[in-house]
Amino acid sequence: MKRIFALLTALALLACANLAAAQPGFPSRPLRVYVPFPPGGGTDVAARALGIELGKSLGQPVVVENRPGGNSVIATDIVAKAAPDGHSLLLTTDFHAINAAFGIPLPYDSLKDFAFVARVSTSPLMLVAHPSTGARTLGGLVAAARARPDHYSFASLGTSSPHHLGFEWFKSLAGIRLLDVPYKGGGPASADVLGGQVDLMFIVAANGIRHARAGKLVALAVTGPTRATAAPETPTFAESGYPDFVMLNWYGVLAPAGTPPEVVKRLNAEIVKALGLPEVARRLAGVGVDAAPSTPEGLEAFVRSDIDKYRRIIARVGAKAEGR
Questions:
Q1: In the chain, what are the domains?
Q2: Cis peptide bond prior to 27, omega within 30° of 0
């Protein structure tokens, strides 16, 4: 009986080993990267640039699928509910932190329902003014706005956008009143600021400095902790008297919670490698962002910190989520 039991055990172990060997490795089929915004924007460009390189290194096609809507909630929910095998990914932005910070009901938990894979990029915003305002420095703008409350206008991209929250935060810190002119997209907003129909806007620093150097806009300050690589001549808000005012746009890759750690580790390694390639860096620079790779743990800590920061901002200014 002992010999029979030993034989059966050996056969069972062999069967398990054969079954394990037969399991397909990762990736076993094409990957899909969901982008929560329309084609042509910065997130779309970043996703496609990464997708090309990931397809080469992983040996499977990478399909980019745009699912805009709901301030990024639609695409995020799809990935939260996808199979946790690494084949469904989300390239998200600071909207992910802002949605969580508002505390509104979401169909997913912004932290618990995701595996954090890698940060892709960070970029400061730049506060720009139309030359007709007469403002040449941040201090000059504040003085003018205090003298003429509700005279100067700013372009925002909805109450749940970092652009809107940034202005509300700055207004609170500076003790000024500005008129909010909401837009559905950055393109129309930029066009009206360039045309002088609206006075102020937060814009990606690389784009803002290009218009400033052409004399079309005035660069007042950047929102990063240090001066922007693309605009070293433009001071930070901290240098201009507002040391607590720091905001960074960011892109990051998430996967469904429960994705095997070894899959997350491999995806992270491949994304970090891709971000080091000149072609990927060039395409990111083209939409005004800098590659800023991280470990999975680094991205999670970064997102948690961003959620806490936006919670404090929302509480300070009494902001309401889009449509609320």
A1: 31-123+248-317 (3.40.190.150), 124-222 (3.40.190.10)
A2: yes
Long-range contacts formed by 260-267: CB under 8 A, 24+ apart:
260/26, 260/84, 260/85, 260/86, 262/26, 263/26, 263/85, 263/86, 264/86, 264/115, 264/116, 264/117, 264/296, 265/296, 266/26, 266/86, 267/86, 267/89, 267/117, 267/118
pLDDT of residue 323: 60
The owner of tokens 């559905």 is 184
Look up residue 152 and give its two tokens: 């100067």
pLDDT higher than 70, residue 73:
yes
Amino acid at 291: A
Q: DSSP strand E in 36-178: where?
A: 62-66, 88-93, 114-129, 153-156
Nearest to 46 by CA among 315, 294, 275: 275
pLDDT band at 210 (very low <50, low <70, confident <90, very high): very high
- CB proximity list for 322: less than 8 A, separation 6 or greater: 71, 158, 159, 160
Contact 56, 25 (CB under 8 A): no
**Residues 13-72: tens digit of each pLDDT:** 444 443 333 345 899 999 999 999 989 888 999 999 999 999 999 999 999 999 998 889
Residue 324's pLDDT is 56
**Which helix or strand (DSSP H or E) is residue 95 part of?**
helix 95-102
First-to-final CA distance of the chain: 72
31-35 and 88-93: which strand pairing? parallel
